[in-house]
């Protein structure tokens, strides 16, 4: 987890937590941003449990030539991306491409069982278009 940096970054996407309500439509709470780092990686910045710090996760496309989906399985039910701590290789979550091209993020800290943080990644207004591949 890195301390907040002083230099400005160009935000490409906003990250929202979708809060379901008993009556009516769900509400969307902005909880983070996405930017592209100097190496071309999508970096998801979310609040950290430590004061004045942000958690930085790298969004990496899953290489299906190295990790193929078994024949007969529905590829749309499998993640398209992994979320990794920016400076590590251990996955802490996954992302799925939605029909509208946005991404659903699931952060489970690398544990399949137990609570998961579910987020939506949407392109920021005025940000350059960046397509996420399946």
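^ structure tokens above, recovered residues below v
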């Amino acid at each position: 987890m890195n301390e907040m940096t002083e230099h400005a970054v160009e935000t490409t996407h906003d990250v929202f937590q979708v809060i379901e309500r008993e009556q009516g439509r769900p509400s969307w709470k902005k909880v983070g941003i996405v930017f592209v780092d100097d190496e071309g990686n999508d970096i998801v910045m979310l609040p950290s449990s430590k004061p004045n710090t942000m958690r930085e996760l790298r969004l990496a496309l899953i290489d299906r030539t190295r990790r193929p989906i078994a024949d007969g399985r529905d590829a749309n039910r499998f993640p398209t991306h992994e979320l990794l701590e920016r400076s590590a290789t251990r996955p802490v979550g996954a992302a799925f491409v939605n029909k509208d091209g946005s991404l659903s993020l699931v952060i489970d800290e690398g544990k399949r069982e137990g609570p998961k943080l579910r987020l939506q990644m949407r392109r920021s207004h005025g940000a350059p278009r960046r397509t996420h591949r399946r």
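The radius of gyration is 15 Å.
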